[in-house]
């Protein structure tokens, strides 16, 4: 079965094509094809590669986000990176959907009703859900009636205890569905299972803190395989400092700014989502690589941005460990978490009291899925490559086996 995965981020679009036989492999396989779009101002940076070694890179400018994605997907069956003869060879398409709202927890086959519900909660995740709906519509135009599956980032956190999920506002908030949903759940769940594999432990025996550090950032406290707390909340704005997002701020600041400057809600949303975080403090970029380079060059605001980022990350990790009542392993994942030895080193510099002792030599060596704690560290420190696309593909494969009778043609989802 050939499964295409669309993973829409706040500043990027990732796509992968997997082929899965009668059984799921224990470790994530190399995709047949993968493509990435990075939006940098008016320019889109595209990279495409396939499992045969063909690679294409380009900087382009299209009239819309959808046209760029259309161009990317065309390389599946055209040009040097093609791996299929035509679009109809794709059996199913899986989508990462950031916010499932109060209704959806488990992966679900897309229907008009499901899409309508995803649209209703688009305001909760404005940088994501609308882009994901656009991707679903594009797939319909390109591939016709191929089955599509939504896999929800909020799903993993839906069983958090009420003490962690509820906000201390009026109780009617809780009754109306205003509570902490949490995000990055697909990757937090994958990393928890992968950590258990790497440690040779039963997942049910572990207390884990997973650090998803990309353009968006969140932590999760995972006990016995379940999310019991996380830093993001009702929207992906809460919690840690991020690339262009503020993370948690005093809500009194927002009412103050609205009164002083008479800003409308959409203007506040723009500031918090696109003009804050690393970019807002540094005035340079929301990209950690550029922040580190500028800080090393003596740029004071870049250094301040880095220091705030690390301070909030350390404080967040401490709170997650307190909720767990201890820690067996700290996991770094996603773009910054996997690739920035500087961020990992700075973060762990004050965490030895938790039993987290970093091996600086191992930390400096670039490789995925490894333990970078010292041999005598009571708790382990892991770097795990984010595998959201593979996790989504596996969910599509599983859903096909369960729900094949639900829709004509959906039997293509089965092995």
Considering the chains and any ligands shown, give keywords for the structure.
8-stranded mixed beta sheet; 415 residues; single chain; Nucleotidyltransferase, domain 5; 14 strands; alpha/beta; 37% helix
Describe this structure in words.
This protein has two domains: 2-158 and 388-413, ATPase, nucleotide binding domain (Nucleotidyltransferase, domain 5); 192-383, ATPase, nucleotide binding domain (Nucleotidyltransferase, domain 5). It has 15 helices and 14 strands. The protein has helices at 65-74, 112-120, 129-143, 162-165, 171-175, 185-199, 251-261, 265-274, 277-282, 288-296, 300-324, 334-339, 341-348, 360-364, 388-403, and strands at residues 2-8, 12-19, 33-40, 43-50, 55-60, 92-97, 108-109, 148-152, 207-213, 217-223, 226-230, 329-333, 370-371, 380-383. An eight-stranded mixed β-sheet has the order 5-4-3-2-1-6-8-7, with helices on both faces. The radius of gyration is 21 Å and the shape is globular. The protein starts with a strand and ends in a 12-residue tail after the last helix.
